[in-house]
């Protein structure tokens, strides 16, 4: 029987069977979890938040990626900066709250003080030979994609972020993320490996049976289907949906709103996918009645019925942008069998809760969906621990994008650990 804790990582990577789920150690092994942090979360661009997390100069937020503590601040010139959240004196954590506002960054241990550019500006009793210029905070690469904040812990980050940003910028810009505010944030600890959370997101094979709230604003044929299993009436409905998508894309793009699908999930290091899709019912937002949840539009659109733009990035995020609000999701690995799913709902910065939007209506679809998905991820994690688990085949009609996620993941692991293999 396979020893799930000592099987060499390289052999697991090399024998991965395409179009099948990963072997159990990828979901259960602490050693492979550590390898994931090294090869994936310390080498690629990671989505961590939005500019409304730090809306004003002096605003700061923190996030932990494995053993790495990261500090993100807006400086006095209104620029977003990121640093290791570690004092250069004796390594104490600088900022302890997830969100705060500061004038300077002051270490509580010995009062070493840094300005918002990361420069050390005060350190008592260090002697005449001490050079403050050599002890500034260690920077972390940070980029804002139209208000979405990404960091990279690698010394040399993947250069293809620029390619992704150039393609995605026109899609996201109309949603005006920088002029939004966070109406609500919810942190959920999912009982599963981070890859199971991502795999679950990359398909909707499970949606019809598990997500009654989510399937209200979404068309059933947008989930994928097997054409050979449809009767004549169902084939006609699927064809009408295909025409609706094509016609919607043409109409939206005629209004200057990019909408057509772009997909580079497994052929770029900074993998991504986007597409704007029509919504069912009244078709305005991800709500139970499919009407806009917020009275004040968040974006600049000619109509309330602009569908929903989805945007996925490897390895850890997905996003939904509507005319009235946006929802962002980030997955942060905690250990081999637990992950943090952080969800943020954004509305226009001038919108007032209870006047312009009802919070329960705004968040109900995804609060329910996240809880349902968390339970499903836990079922998969429990199964991966058993002796009976073996990789199962993906549906070629509804799980193609799960395969693209796993193919991207194995490619990144191979590039980092298997020097004999070609990589992107």
Question: What can you tell me about this protein's structure?
Answer:
- The chain is an alpha+beta fold and 424 residues long.
- The chain has 2 domains: 50-145, Rieske Iron-sulfur Protein; 167-414, Naphthalene 1,2-dioxygenase Alpha Subunit, Chain A, domain 1, CATH 3.90.380.10.
- Helix content is 27%, strand content 23%.
- The protein has helices spanning 9-14, 25-28, 30-41, 161-172, 194-201, 207-210, 232-254, 359-384, 400-417, and strands at 46-50, 59-65, 68-74, 80-84, 99-101, 105-106, 113-114, 120-122, 141-145, 148-152, 180-190, 262-264, 272-277, 308-313, 317-321, 326-335, 338-348.
- Strands 11-17-16-15-14-13-12 form a 7-stranded antiparallel beta sheet, with helices on both faces. It has a 4-stranded antiparallel beta sheet with strand order 4-3-2-5, with no helix packed on it. It has a 3-stranded antiparallel beta sheet with strand order 1-10-9.
- A hairpin with a 6-residue loop joins strand 6 and strand 7 (113-114).
- The protein is globular and about 85 Å long.
- The two termini are 34 Å apart.
- This is (Fe-S)-binding protein.
- It holds the Pfam family Ring_hydroxyl_A.
Task: Offer a quick outline of the entry.
The protein has 424 residues and is of the alpha+beta class. The chain is built from nine helices and 17 strands.
């Amino acid at each position: 029987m396979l020893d799930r804790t000592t099987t060499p990582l390289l052999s697991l990577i090399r024998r991965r069977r395409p179009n099948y789920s990963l072997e159990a150690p990828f979901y259960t092994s602490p050693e492979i979890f550590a390898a994931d942090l090294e090869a994936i979360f310390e080498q690629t661009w990671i989505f961590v938040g939005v500019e409304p997390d730090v809306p004003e100069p002096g605003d700061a937020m923190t996030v932990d990626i494995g053993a790495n503590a990261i500090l993100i601040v807006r400086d006095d010139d209104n620029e977003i900066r990121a640093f290791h959240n570690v004092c250069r004196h004796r390594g104490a954590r600088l900022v302890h709250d997830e969100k705060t506002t500061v004038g300077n960054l002051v270490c509580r241990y010995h009062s070493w003080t840094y300005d918002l550019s990361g420069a050390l500006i005060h350190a008592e009793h260090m002697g005449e030979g001490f050079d403050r210029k050599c002890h500034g905070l260690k920077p972390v690469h940070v980029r804002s994609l139209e208000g979405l904040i990404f960091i990279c812990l690698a010394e040399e980050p993947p250069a293809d972020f620029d390619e992704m940003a150039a393609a995605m910028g026109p899609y996201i810009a109309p949603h005006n993320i920088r002029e939004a505010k966070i109406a609500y944030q919810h942190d959920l600890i999912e009982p599963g490996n981070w890859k199971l959370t991502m795999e679950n997101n990359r398909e909707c094979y499970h949606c019809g049976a598990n997500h009654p709230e989510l399937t209200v604003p979404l068309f059933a044929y947008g989930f994928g289907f097997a054409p050979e299993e449809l009767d004549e009436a169902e084939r006609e409905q699927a064809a009408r949906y295909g025409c609706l998508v094509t016609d919607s894309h043409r109409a939206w793009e005629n209004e200057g709103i990019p909408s057509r699908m772009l997909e580079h999930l497994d052929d770029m290091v900074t993998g991504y996918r986007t597409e704007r899709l029509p919504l069912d019912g009244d078709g305005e937002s991800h709500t139970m009645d499919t009407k806009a949840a917020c009275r004040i539009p968040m974006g600049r659109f000619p109509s309330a019925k602009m569908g929903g733009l989805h945007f996925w990035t490897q390895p850890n995020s997905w996003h939904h942008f509507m005319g009235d609000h946006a929802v962002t999701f980030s997955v942060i690995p905690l250990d081999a069998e637990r992950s943090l799913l952080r969800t943020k709902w954004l509305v226009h910065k001038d919108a007032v809760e209870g006047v312009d939007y009802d919070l329960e209506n705004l968040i109900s679809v995804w609060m329910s969906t996240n809880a349902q998905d968390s339970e499903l991820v836990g079922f998969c994690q429990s199964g991966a621990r058993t002796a009976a688990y073996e990789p199962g085949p993906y549906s070629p009609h509804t799980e193609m994008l799960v395969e693209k996620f796993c193919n991207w993941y194995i490619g990144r692991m191979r590039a980092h650990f298997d020097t004999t293999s070609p990589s992107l």
